[in-house]
UniProtKB/TrEMBL annotation:
EC top class, as a word: oxidoreductase
Protein known as: UDP-N-acetylenolpyruvoylglucosamine reductase
Domain FAD-binding PCMH-type: 34-198
Cofactor: FAD
Subcellular localization: Cytoplasm
InterPro entries according to UniProt: FAD-bd_PCMH, FAD-bd_PCMH-like_sf, FAD-bd_PCMH_sub1, FAD-bd_PCMH_sub2, MurB, MurB_C, MurB_C_sf, Oxid_FAD_bind_N
Enzymatic reactions: UDP-N-acetyl-alpha-D-muramate + NADP(+) = UDP-N-acetyl-3-O-(1-carboxyvinyl)-alpha-D-glucosamine + NADPH + H(+)
MF terms (GO), sorted A to Z: UDP-N-acetylmuramate dehydrogenase activity
């Protein structure tokens, strides 16, 4: 019996069969729509099941990967050896007065819309960000002069020993695309946001305006992982790329968007290798021209084919 058969047998003791998938194409679970197969993909419905899965992985020396919407991940063409723990079924959102509580697998955009419906202001900036609550908190996601750090109150996380901790805003050490969650590989189970009562029409108008601006300025019609590179200190990645003459540059099916040069898109059946080759080419070109290092914002996982 190989490890997959053993693992599935163990998982079946506490999970539904529908929540366990074998040899799964990760292109179905990432916004880039590329990537090879993962050995196993599981979708737990309870916090304690996340802990049990991690314990199984650790006891058997198996790698595991935490995924929300897959909107900030590039999986290589050879796929992933190990277990992908997808938190999409931990997606409950509740509102208590001016507090919004969302599980880690809930959509950040859905949280923004729920707050709008309850006339709560503070999460308008998040309306078009394609990730989950977990990824957004871990990366301190932000847009249009708003960031998670501005509205987060506390977060329930699980460490790699399966222990559950509650961290305050200050304890999260939120910075530009970083947090203590990334430093310690914590898993976000739940986040509490402190919002404020506001005027429903103004909130709805702000969200509509931001969504319109996204559609006009970003290549949402193509698969991508959003902004490909972090903002280098003192610069804007998109401007550096454009000023390097790379707008519209293409390798295989991957392209630097001619609508927004901060995005690398899957324009035409790209492979992960196409995207990676283009990322490296952009980095090298910008370094040679401006002596600025571009660091990918997207997380790169897996094996080459």
């Amino acid at each position: 019996m190989n490890y997959i058969q053993y693992f599935v047998a163990e998982l079946n003791k506490f999970m539904d069969e529908d929540d366990i998938k074998i040899d799964v194409p990760m292109k179905k679970y990432t916004s880039f729509k590329v990537g090879g197969n993962a050995d196993l993909l599981v979708t737990p419905k309870k916090y304690k099941d996340v802990s049990k899965i991690i314990d199984l992985c650790k006891d058997n020396n198996i790698d595991y990967y935490i995924v929300g919407n897959g909107s900030n991940i590039l999986v290589k063409d050879g796929g992933l050896r190990g277990v992908v723990i997808k938190l999409s079924k931990l997606d409950n959102i509740t509102i208590d007065g001016e507090e919004l509580i969302a599980q880690g697998g809930a959509s950040l955009g859905d949280a923004s819309i729920r707050s709008r419906d309850e006339s709560l202001t503070g999460l308008e900036f998040a309306c078009g960000i394609p990730g989950t609550i977990g990824g957004a908190v871990a990366m301190n996601a932000g847009a249009y002069n708003g960031e998670i750090v501005d509205v987060i109150d506390s977060v329930l996380v699980m460490d790699d020993n399966g222990q559950i901790l509650r961290l305050s805003n200050e304890e999260l050490e939120l910075g530009y695309r970083t947090s203590i969650i990334l430093k310690h590989n914590y898993i976000v189970l739940e986040a509490s946001f402190k919002l404020q009562k506001g005027d429903h029409d103004k909130i709805a108008g702000r969200i509509s305006d931001l969504m319109r601006r996204r559609r006009e300025k970003q290549p949402l019609e193509y698969p991508s992982a959003g902004s490909t590179f972090k903002r280098p200190e003192g610069h804007f990645a998109a401007k550096l790329i454009q000023d390097s003459g790379l707008k519209g540059a293409q390798m295989g099916g991957a392209q630097v968007s001619d609508k927004h040069s901060g995005f690398i898109i899957n324009k035409e059946n790209a492979t992960a290798k196409d995207i990676l080759d283009l990322i490296h080419f952009v980095q090298k070109t910008v370094k040679n021209k401006f002596d600025v290092e571009l660091e990918p914002e997207v997380r790169i996982w897996g094996e080459d084919r």
